[in-house]
Amino acid sequence: MQHAARSTLGPMRYGADTLLYTARARPIACCYSISLHHSDEARLLALGYFSVGADGVAAALEGLIERACLRAAGEGKLRVSARAEEDSDACDLLRWLGFTSITREQVYFGPCDARSSEGGSELEPLHPEDAWDVWKLYNRTEPAGVQRAEALTPSTWQRGRRLRSGRRREWVYHSAPGEAALHAELRLGKRSAALNLHYDPEYRRLLPDAINQARLAAAQHGAGTLYCTARDHQAELSGVLEEMGHSLLVSQSRLVMYTSVLSYAQEARAIGMAERAASVFRNTLSSRADPDRDPHVSDPEW
Q1: Does a structural domain hold residue 3?
Q2: Which of 54, 62, 151, 293 has an alpha carbon within 20 to 30 A of 189's alpha carbon?
């Protein structure tokens, strides 16, 4: 069976729920989603189809997305989020179904060449007592629309950090006692690493230092490629990454749908004609489940 799916919504992850649309026992399309534990959010991870040129693929994908959203509403989730490549068919379909774009994310990649800032780094390793300062930085620098969509509070942000798996390194720069001006989080995989940055625009001069810190740490860990995401309001970061030799990989829209209008559908838990994917199908996509394949898609929470 040829699988023609290409994920435009994020990396495949273990534990995702799968909806499969079939016609006369022939698979037509599929939708991967995940309901986050201890969160009021569900995420669409990937859309795909099996037969190139198959009739009704668009209608099948539309039905699967609607079913996934109804299911999320039935489970008490307040919103469904997704990432889709800009100007793609998936992005157009999600917007047509009621998803709203909250920001654009440009994903860059470059080598981990172990270079460090001249004269030493101004950044310090993040300590547990710095968590509140970093939260205030996030609350001060992220646009209101993004904060509404992510619906983070200090407690949910802390809980999300505790629940994250995998290795990571973090650094912070304080412009004054109790005031964080830059926070860098590096998530490490076996062959690559992903960097997320939050910063006060007045301290953009620290961005090359933070990127070089991440390159050095990733290289020491054995990673060969560093991915970094710059959101719409981080134009300075895009410029610095390009100056440092990073290349643009993809420009993607971050979208969200609020499920309050769907919450009346108590039957959302029933799957109906959509059915769970067989283990053979799950194995077909096993290569997409490796987070090292697509680490550039950052965690929506940070």
Answers
A1: no
A2: 151
